[in-house]
Design a protein that fits this description.
Layout: H1 2-27, E1 33-36, H2 38-44, H3 46-75, H4 79-125, E2 130-133, E3 142-143, H5 145-151
Parallel strand pairs: 1-2, 1-3
Helix pairs in contact: 2-5, 3-4
Length: 153
């Protein structure tokens, strides 16, 4: 009986000691939080600007194809040839659009990965535990947008 009593007391003391040590360890940690304006960072990125310029150039190429198709259709009177021309240009424009979208998404994903890597590297260098987008944070956090924007080219 005495043996069970001692085991119960030791178990209770071990539990109490473990619980207090856990509270002490948790109470001393505070997360260092930063916020960034992702839209500002993207707008300042030269890679994003170059991608937009490429996109606009390719959209103009698609528009040129459409203008060429309109001109060719205006000259033609035969309904069978008109249908063939429409089909030809529809396929050509669809292929251009798919290629444009695929390339754009691939490059945008790559740029996003590079920007994220830069943010993580800089935030770790500044000893931040958490970085959140500024537009979802109502209060708190250190704004490190300008520090990050300098490193992103």
């Amino acid at each position: 009986m005495r043996k069970h009593f001692y085991i119960a007391v030791i178990a209770a003391l071990a539990f109490a000691l473990g619980y207090s040590v856990n509270n002490i360890a948790i109470s001393d940690t505070t997360a260092k939080v930063a916020v960034i304006d992702a839209a500002k960072i993207a707008a300042n990125s030269s890679a994003v600007k170059n991608l937009k310029a490429e996109q606009e150039k390719k959209v103009k190429e698609i528009q040129a194809t459409l203008d060429k198709a309109k001109a060719e259709l205006a000259k033609e009177k035969d309904p069978a040839k008109i249908a063939a021309i429409e089909e030809k240009y529809r396929n050509q424009v669809n292929a251009q659009k798919i290629a444009l979208d695929t390339e754009y998404n691939k490059k945008l994903t790559q740029i996003d990965s590079e920007i994220r890597a830069t943010i993580v590297e800089k935030a770790r260098g500044l000893n931040y535990d958490l970085v959140l987008p500024k537009n979802i944070v109502y209060f708190g956090g250190d704004d490190i947008t300008d520090v990050i924007a300098k490193d992103i080219k």
